[in-house]
Design brief:
The chain contains 7 helices and 12 strands. The chain is an alpha+beta fold. The strands form 3 sheets. It has a 5-stranded mixed β-sheet with strand order 3-2-1-5-8, with no helix packed on it. It has a 5-stranded mixed β-sheet with strand order 4-10-9-6-7. Strand 11 and strand 12 (278-280) form a beta hairpin. Helix 5 crosses helix 7.
Length: 328
């Protein structure tokens, strides 16, 4: 989706990562997590190479030249207690060190700092929606740089997972409960968001962005965004809601059907329902279908749309209806 409202303060492009394997570390916890990852990677690489070299050498050095040499007639090795203690104790100490290192990082990730800025993230097939303290909502996550941010996460339907690779944070969105994560961004720019839990047909399209604003930019963004919404004509606001509320994941505007029927040219038609009856598509039908989509199921489509009752105010409902009416 293109921005209907440009960011009030131009953002620099995110600088390239200086790590071979990982994206740009852009939060306060990235360093510790990357350090543990690099340690595990290189330790595994060195040990793997060492074991392969040793296996190759022993296979060559002690190969049997003939069948007679392969027949062992007497004991050729003895038990070595010191060797067994060595190869048991050293890996144990390394494992304890890795556990302590990882547990310290886990505690840091789970201990949200006080006075963190709280933003709500709502997941549903197949869209992210972020709600800011002043009530504004956007499908992109806008945060200030150099400030603790707490994301309170919920799901409207199935399991999802909010994953921001540049910040090295991920948390599942679980239906029926709240989960949370926190981060402290250290770089300004545009960073991708993914869903890391398979959630259905369009799972791979459940993408978004984290926009990290420079000092003062986050507050100015919210002010300008609010002004834009208040001044927006109903049809234009309806189009914005179509893109940000997840409607585009199931409904098209070009006449092709997806999980739900297309919105193109539907207003004024007679719609056949799953129970065998039919109903005219007018303003009241559209409003009811948005806030309580299970009330009248369109024939040929599954009852999979979540209810938007309580999620949209009257202005937003009217805007969506007007946008649907405009799609001739």
């Amino acid at each position: 989706m293109s921005y209907l409202l440009q960011d009030p303060i131009p953002l620099p492009k995110s600088p390239p990562s200086n790590d071979t394997w990982l994206p740009l570390p852009a939060s306060t916890v990235s360093g510790d997590i990357d350090g543990l990852f690099d340690f595990l990677f290189w330790m595994s690489a060195v040990l793997s190479i060492g074991i392969m070299v040793a296996m190759t050498w022993f296979a060559y050095r002690y190969r049997a030249g003939s069948r007679a040499q392969n027949e062992v007639s007497e004991k050729t090795s003895d038990h070595n207690t010191a060797l067994e203690i060595t190869w048991s104790v050293i890996p144990l100490l390394v494992s304890i060190a890795i556990f302590v290192w990882g547990f310290k990082g886990y505690v840091t990730l789970r201990a949200t700092p006080k006075d963190a800025l709280e933003i709500h993230a709502t997941a549903q097939k197949w869209k992210w929606l972020f709600t800011y303290p002043n009530g504004l909502q956007d499908d992109k996550l806008h945060v200030p740089v150099d400030r603790d941010v707490r994301i309170i996460i919920q799901s409207m339907d199935v399991l999802h997972s909010l994953f921001i690779p540049a910040f090295r944070v991920k948390m599942d969105a679980v239906p029926g409960r709240y989960t949370e994560l926190w981060f402290h961004a250290t770089e300004t720019g545009d960073f991708p968001i993914f869903c890391a839990e398979y959630c259905g047909t369009a799972h791979s399209d459940m993408l978004s962005h984290t926009i990290v604003h420079p000092p003062g930019g986050y507050e100015e963004f919210l002010r300008e965004y609010e002004k834009k919404l208040l001044a927006m004509p109903p049809v234009e606001l309806g189009k914005l809601l179509y893109e940000t509320k997840g409607c585009s994941a199931c409904h098209t505007t070009d006449g092709t059907a997806k999980i739900g029927p297309s919105w193109k040219g539907v207003f004024g038609k007679q719609e056949a329902l799953a129970d065998g009856s039919s109903v005219p598509i007018d303003e009241n039908y559209l409003r009811e279908s948005i806030i309580d989509p299970q009330a009248k199921i369109v024939n040929g489509f599954p009852p999979s749309m979540p209810a938007y009752k309580g999620q949209l105010n009257d202005q937003e409902l009217t805007a969506l209806v007007e946008y649907i009416k405009s799609l001739k």
